[in-house]
């Protein structure tokens, strides 16, 4: 589970990352990365899983999987970086290993 300081919580924060961050698209996810503005802040993650992905149970499962992947990747991401991951409808049928590979590839490319 991601600790509170490592989560984006406000809509304005999500909007800023999506609008100003660099974009990395994959088959099941789109990852937006806003580079560190200050190294003294914690790395923060946010997740967007719309109703197009599936029912509430499916959406929460996808969100938990993405949180687990981000927790694994947390040490490799620069402090202060903000990341938003948008799940696409295909994520509902994707294996955990596929989601992990997509997200870690994008984070290594944009946030390392």
Automatic annotation (TrEMBL):
EC code(s) of this entry: 3.1.26.5
Provide this UniProt record's keywords sorted from A to Z.
Endonuclease, Hydrolase, Nuclease, RNA-binding, tRNA processing
Biological process annotations from GO: tRNA 5'-leader removal
Cellular component terms per the entry's GO annotation: ribonuclease P complex
SUPFAM superfamilies in alphabetical order: Ribosomal protein S5 domain 2-like
Is the keyword Nuclease in the record? yes
Which first-to-last residue range defines the signal peptide?
A: none
> GO molecular function, one example?
ribonuclease P activity
Q: Which reaction does it catalyse?
A: Endonucleolytic cleavage of RNA, removing 5'-extranucleotides from tRNA precursor
Name the PROSITE patterns for this protein.
RIBONUCLEASE_P
HAMAP family of this UniProt entry? RNase_P (MF_00227)
The record describes its quaternary structure and partners as: Consists of a catalytic RNA component (M1 or rnpB) and a protein subunit.
Q: Which family does this protein fall into?
A: Belongs to the RnpA family.
Function of the protein: RNaseP catalyzes the removal of the 5'-leader sequence from pre-tRNA to produce the mature 5'-terminus. It can also cleave other RNA substrates such as 4.5S RNA. The protein component plays an auxiliary but essential role in vivo by binding to the 5'-leader sequence and broadening the substrate specificity of the ribozyme.
Q: What is this protein called?
A: Ribonuclease P protein component
């Amino acid at each position: 589970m991601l600790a509170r300081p490592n989560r984006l919580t406000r809509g304005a924060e999500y909007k800023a990352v999506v609008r100003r961050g660099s974009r990395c698209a994959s088959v099941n996810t789109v990852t937006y990365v806003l580079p560190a503005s200050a190294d003294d802040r914690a790395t923060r993650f946010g997740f967007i899983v719309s109703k197009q992905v599936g029912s509430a149970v499916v959406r929460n499962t996808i969100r938990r999987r993405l949180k687990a992947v981000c927790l694994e990747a947390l040490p490799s991401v620069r402090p202060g970086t903000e990341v938003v991951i948008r799940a696409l409808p295909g994520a509902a049928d994707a294996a955990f290993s596929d989601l992990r590979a997509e997200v870690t590839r994008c984070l290594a490319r944009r946030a390392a």
